Amino acid sequence: MTSRPSTIPPGSWPRRMQADLAAGYVGERTVEAFLQRVGTDYPLPRVDEGRRRLWLIDDLDRAIAPEGTDLPDLADEL
Question: pTM for the full model?
Answer without folding.
Answer: 0.78
